[in-house]
Specification:
Order of helices and strands: HHHHHHHHHHHHHHHHHHHHHH
Strand content: under 5%
Number of helices: 22
Helix content: 55-70%
Shape: elongated
Oligomer: single chain
Distance between the termini: 13 Å
Structural class: mainly alpha
Mean pLDDT: 77
Length: 438
């Protein structure tokens, strides 16, 4: 059997990294002539697998080959176990294992993109940081604010006060205004300045009730978008409903809305695991990731049901278990990390810098949630095993020449990246190469 020239060339390119840098490699371009170093192909371009892989394994027509092979099969010289090894390697690539450090890094990145203004408006953010730091300067001294910051009960409120003060200072400056229009453009700087000054005075005097109140006011005012994109949508909405869009003024006059935000902030004074879970942050995130697991696996569920109802129900069960694991892992991970930071991390702002305490406190829940979900994912995968839909897909690929090429390419690319590949899969690739270059 001979592959089409284009496909064979592509395979050779993958194996040898390009003809230019490996001119002595046997290929269809040089009539498969080579010097002695290539007389027994052994993947000289790889450095990340056992020496046994480089040994020349003779091809034999008497091998126990897979029973179902397409015409012109690439796998014609492989045993059933070697064919299965390539399929298993493909299935492994569909659900790669994530490390705890990788999950934590992903959580930190996710926390960062929740505040895109820091990236989109770096100059405003820098100026706002200087103004906010000045308002919190006394946190490092023997002051009323220092005593509040070191009390775990008020950790979340003070970090939110820092964040909202920073947002208000930044939004008073000129900005592009695609999503949120600046207070300067809407003529609301004076109203916001009044609240900002009240908050600064409350911080100086250490009055937690007033700090909570003015933080809630800034939160509610900031929730108005008024950028040119929302304004366009508001005009469309008003045409159909006649309802006026909210403004900063209307938000500041919305006493019930501000009161609700005040109560929510006040409820963050509980420092036990029970109270943190009861607030529902981790639970809400867990429900979100449960739903995401289901949505992302709808294709697998459909594939499994197309085979038969029993297989479909098994895939549905696997997805449900993994989704539940994601939900529980996220909820417990987020709650545990917030609890730990509230208990032991309150002094970071007073001992080092308030901005550091705010940044860590804002990210710690997300990082803890992703790590918790990672650990839960490992447990649920060990419990339910590989998705049955993955097995169906791998078997389908093995039944066509094009699919076999994809399985082969997948294993080669994983080896090139230094990923762990089973000795059986390595041996299968070596046999296929020997088959063409013998």
């Amino acid at each position: 059997m001979v592959l089409p020239v284009s496909q064979l060339a592509n395979m050779e390119m993958a194996l040898y990294g390009g003809f230019g840098s490996n001119a002595n490699a046997p290929s269809y371009l040089n009539g498969y002539s080579s010097n002695n170093s290539y007389s027994n192909p052994s993947f000289y371009g790889y450095n990340n697998y056992d020496q046994t892989f480089g040994q020349n394994i003779p091809y034999s027509n008497n091998m126990n080959t897979s029973q179902t092979q397409p015409q012109n099969s690439i796998f014609q010289g492989l045993s059933q176990s070697e064919t299965q090894a390539l399929k298993d390697d493909y299935k492994k690539s569909l659900s790669p294992s994530e490390g705890i450090l990788g999950a934590a890094a992903g959580g930190a990145a996710f926390a960062l993109i929740q505040n895109p203004r820091l990236i989109c408006h770096p100059i405003n953010s820098w100026k706002a940081t200087k103004a906010t730091n000045a308002a919190f300067a006394s946190v490092k001294g023997n002051s009323a604010l220092n005593k509040l910051w070191n009390n775990p009960k008020y950790s979340n409120i003070l970090r939110e006060a820092y964040l909202q003060l920073h947002k208000a200072e930044a939004r008073k400056m000129t900005k592009f205004g695609a999503i949120r229009r600046s207070y300067k453009a809407t003529g609301d700087v004076e109203k916001i300045d009044n609240i900002v000054n009240n908050l600064k005075n409350a911080l100086k005097e250490g009055k937690i009730g007033l700090i909570t109140k003015h933080t809630a006011e800034l939160q509610h005012a900031y929730s108005v978008n008024q950028g040119f994109i929302p304004r366009t949508w508001n005009k469309i909405t008003k045409f159909f409903t006649g309802k006026e869009a909210a403004t900063v003024t209307s938000k500041l006059n919305d006493k019930n809305g501000i009161l609700n935000r005040y109560k929510t902030l006040k409820n963050t004074t509980g420092t036990s695991m029970k109270s943190i879970l009861k607030r529902g942050g981790g639970i809400k995130g867990g429900i979100l990731f449960f739903a995401m697991e289901i949505l992302m696996n709808l294709g697998k569920i459909k594939t499994a049901f197309e085979k038969d109802s029993n297989t479909g129900m098994k895939q549905l069960g696997q997805t449900a278990v993994k989704g539940t694991g994601n939900a529980v892992g996220w909820a417990l991970g987020e709650a545990a990390s917030v609890w730990a930071f509230t208990k032991w991390g309150a002094k970071i702002g007073s001992k080092i810098h308030p901005i550091l305490g705010t940044l860590i406190g804002g990210a710690v829940g997300v990082i803890g949630g992703t790590v918790g979900m990672c650990l839960a994912g490992k447990a649920t995968k060990a419990l339910v095993g590989q998705d049955v839909a993955d097995d169906i897909d791998a078997n389908k690929l093995a039944q066509t020449t094009e699919g076999q090429e994809e399985l082969l390419k997948n294993t080669i690319e994983r080896m090139q990246r230094g990923e762990k590949v089973s000795p059986e899969a390595q041996q299968a690739v070596q046999k296929i190469i020997n088959q063409y270059y013998a």
